[in-house]
Every structure is written in structure tokens, then in C-alpha cells.
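Bumping with the actual sequence this time:
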Amino acid sequence: MRILVAGASGLIGTALSSTLRDSGHDVASLVRRPPASPAEFQWDPAAGRIDDTALKGADAVINLSGAGIGDRPWTRGRINELSASRLGPTRTLTTAMRRMDNPPPVFLSQSASGYYGNAGQAVLRENAPAGSGVLARICADWEAAAQEAPAGVRVVTARTGVVLSRSGGALGRLLPLLRLGVGGPLGNGRQYWPWITLPDVAGAFNFLLTAPLAGPVNVCAPESADVNSLISRLAESLHRPALMRVPAPVLRLVMGQLANELLLASQRMEPAALAGAGFQWQHPSLAQATAWVAARS
């Protein structure tokens, strides 16, 4: 398949592009700078501009664009940027598809577990309603923008959980602390984080290119875990203690609204659609995942 990737330089995009090429696919990417190779095409999603030749002959488009959720404090300007950096690229892609006589038949557009808001202990399958809050609103708008693709395009909105990697991503700041033995759970630790390893999220997107699925798909591991379990397992795999709990009031004082929605919210997500379609995880259990994360390259 010829696959066009937006957001190919990020954590997921880099791993996914490698996985796709290893699977024999022809991968092209969208870049904001001048193209450096025939496999790159320039676009300016903030202005709605794209080189339409990028989509010609593509069998699928994968949209991973979006500013980092936890990279900076959530000022009003930053929240607007988080939204615009997702809606702008998505609408640029769907508008370009609508200009084509034969648009790519598959559009995989990333969403996030934040769609569900703070859902407590409830098990969240794909038919669960949207939650409330900044992330839930952004994700709902993001998914609606993806559904603006032309009729006949199979649209999948991948609600990705916390991606566990050996460096960067959600654990980028936490892993070094755990390696030093000075990390610990966040808040009371009873909130659920839907997690998935980086190889499995890349594998899931590869699987979704041909799987008979459309609409929202929860992209997480089949084993659910609260933060207490996740942190203790990681620390155990690193042979370190994890005793320095950070209380919720401290997190709120330092991080404000971002703490409530990103660190303290609970989403007990279940990958019902992926499991039903026959996806096979490399790291289905938390024990396997944390052993992979802790392993040295």
C-alpha cells in the first residue's frame, strides 16, 4: 500500500513509519519545510494549504498531527493551540480529499482517551459517551473533523491511551525519576490510565489499515491498570522503589487544570473493537509492557 502520514516525525509517527516500511508499505510524509526527498510533500495546515499530489495514488492517509498535550502549561492561548493544531490539519486533509475524483479509501485519524473525560471506574468501550472538559471537547471536535472525509472513505478515529516507550512520550519525565528511585504514584493512584506500548500502538495502526473497522477504536492494551499498579510495576522492573507519592493538591498547584485532566482523570478503557477484529498485542499484560520499557536497548 502507498500510505501518506501526517505527523510522521513524532514519537508515534516515527515508530509507525518504520513499522509500515518493515511491512512492505510505501510511506510518504507531509512536512512543513521544503521537501528533502521524493517521499516528502510540503503543506501548511494552519493556512489550509497542501500539495494535492501527495494524496494522488495513496491507499490510506494517517493523521497524527497535534501539539503535545502536556508539554506546556494550559494557558488560554495554549488550549487554543492544542485545538487548532488538531482541527487545522484534519480539515486540510479532508478538504483535499473532497477535491479528488478518487480519494484515498482509508483515513486513520488519531484521537485520544481524553474523549471520555474523567469516567471513574466505569469500563469504557467505543460506544461510551464523551466526557466533559478541555480534552473531551477537543477530541470530540477532532473526531467530527475527521468524519468530514468524502463519502466512501473508511474513517477510523483511534482513541489512543498513554503510550509507554523507553524514552520520550508520557513517561519521558517520569522514567528518569523512577530509575533514580525517587518517583512514585500521582494523586491517590486509583485513577485508571489506559496504556499501550509504542510497538503495539504502531502495530495497531498498521492493523487498522485493512481491518474491517470504522468509527472510534480504543487503542490500548487489554489489561487495565490504575496508576498505583502501573508505577509499582515499572519500578519493580527497574529494581527501584516507588515511594514518593505526589499528592493531588500539589499537582493541581503546580499544573492547574492540566493535572486534573491529564494526570488525575480516570479512563478504564477497553479495546473492544481491536480485540473483536483479532488484533494481537506484543505486550498485552502490564508485566510484559513494563519489562519491555525497562529493558536497555
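The C-alpha cells above came from a reply further down the thread. The first helix runs from residue 11 to 22.
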